[in-house]
Amino acid sequence: MPLLGFSLAALIGLSLGLLGGGGSILTVPILVYVLGFGAKESIAMGLAVVGVTSLFGAVGHWRRGNLQLRATLVFGVMAMAGTYAGARLSVFVSGAVQLLLFATVMLVAALFMFRNSRKEAAVAARKERAPEPRPRKAPFLVMVAAALGVGGLTGMVGVGGGFLIVPTLVLLVGLPMKQAVGTSLLLIAFNSFVGFAGYLGHVEVPWTYLGVFTGIAVAGILAGTWASHFVSQAALKRAFSVFLVVMGIFILYENHDALAALPGTARQTSQTSG
Q1: What's the pTM?
Q2: Where are the domains of the chain?
């Protein structure tokens, strides 16, 4: 279903433009369940698509002065090291297990997004200005661990990690929220490109599909950025979080055989049957 898959590619860009994240969480399911690519190929292609679309989004934030290049360099180098390591380590993990991890990330992202939308809706109802998280700087080793963790997750399961990077930049690096959002898009782009490079040589990339899919997603992010001024962010986040839950449960169901084969699950099943 190439036509449907390419049409859905616009949703990836729209989500990035409207919400500042969520693009990678849509990319992999579309590539696997609509276009029929394998899990590893889809994760690799998803990294390339999200990398390019996030870079376009970062340019817009750079023009508005919302990019902190120093934080990008310091945090980004460590995160990219984690991303490359995660991509290389993924060779030793089956595609089904990667999709299980991906579904888990979807459910966690849905929880974060739903909680955030409820807070925004409550603030809007009171006609107040939403309080921003209080920026602070954490010890250097904590920032290193956070950057490596976010990067490793990006490389292993192909998510850009925006829902993790933004709070990390605010609460650990000490950036104001607007700069954290803009900087996160540049970090997502760098992480995604490094992760994609880590998959090269291990998966076969259909470059024509990838080019067309990415071009449509870029058009989507430009449209989403324009439309973000006219729609309720809280309502969008609530709807998107419900969609993530549905997709996460669907992916878990589709890969239930791999879930049952995990060591802890298998042991628990044998104890129950015994």
Answers
A1: 0.71
A2: 2-258
